[in-house]
Amino acid sequence: MREYGPAVFLVAMLFASWEIIAWTVNLPFILPPPSGVAITFWELKKVLVFEHLPSTLAIIVIGLVISIVLGVGLAVWMCLSRTAEKAFYPIIISSQMIPTIALAPIFIMVFGYSIWSKVVVTVLITFFPITVSTFDGLKSSSKDLRELLLTMGGTKKDVFFKLQIPSAMPYFYSGLKVAVTLSVIGAAIGEWLGAQSGLGYFSRRMMTQFDGAAVFAPIVLLSAVGIGLFLIVKLLENRSLKWRKTK
């Protein structure tokens, strides 16, 4: 409690201020109070959790798996091949210059309202931090240690598996922690623009009915999913990197 006390206090103050402002403004369809959002969430919990959450989780999981496989694979390729680095690295950077929300309607036109239009949006958002972080980690290995391994008779394969991969693991997890939170945003954006189920779809549908509390209710669940995914990655990081002292 001593460690997280300041954060809990700050969050409590923000919610208290939100509650006071919401009751003062008295426009619940635009700014519902947190108490109203909590009540609405409790009333809609079965619909949100059992009908719409599975669709959103499927998009998030599939998008993250694809991003990890492609991101790590491309990072390794760029690390091993200077030509691949020159060819793909500028494209990876340029891909983040185009707003994802502008591309989402194109993906919906191509893939329709199926799950894959939302998965592509999620991959586009989560692919970048995983690829760049892993690539930077692979390139960050100590030159002195590399020369020492080669001097002791090690091969390039030994350098890669015994030096570069361990050096890249903290970077990979840093990128993955960013990616899991962005995956929630990507799934919500895709569902917001075109879907038949999901938390983003439900929030957009409630907006057309001017039900502010019901618009915020799925956002609360999305935030919980993002926090849960982050904690899972943090747990995996602590267990797989026991050699690194973490706070």
Produce a short descriptive summary.
By secondary structure, the chain is mainly α. The protein has helices at residues 5-25, 34-80, 82-95, 100-111, 115-139, 143-151, 156-193, 199-208, 212-240.
Can you tell me about this structure?
The protein has one domain (44-240): MetI-like (MetI-like fold). Helix 2 (34-80) crosses helix 9 and helix 7 runs parallel beside helix 8. The model has no long low-confidence stretch (mean pLDDT 87). With 247 residues, it is an all-alpha fold. The protein has helices spanning 5-25, 34-80, 82-95, 100-111, 115-139, 143-151, 156-193, 199-208, 212-240. The longest helix has 47 residues, at 34-80. It is globular and about 75 Å long. Helix content is 83%, strand content 0%.
Chart the SSEs and their pairings.
Layout: H1 5-25, H2 34-80, H3 82-95, H4 100-111, H5 115-139, H6 143-151, H7 156-193, H8 199-208, H9 212-240
Helix pairs in contact: 2-3, 2-5, 2-7, 2-8, 2-9, 4-5, 5-7, 6-7, 7-8, 7-9, 8-9
User: With helices defined by DSSP (H or I, 4 residues minimum), what is the helix count?
Assistant: 9
Q: What's the overall average pLDDT, rounded?
A: 87
Return the CATH class.
Mainly Alpha
The major β-sheet equals: none
Pick out the low-confidence regions. none
- State the helical fraction: over 70%
* Oligomer description: single chain
Structural class: mainly alpha
CATH architecture: Orthogonal Bundle
Distance N to C terminus = 15 Å
* CATH topological fold name: MetI-like fold
Tell me how many strands there are: 0
Q: How many separate domains make up the residues?
A: 1
Overall shape: it is globular
Tell me the name of the CATH homologous superfamily.
MetI-like
Give, in order, the helices and strands.
HHHHHHHHH
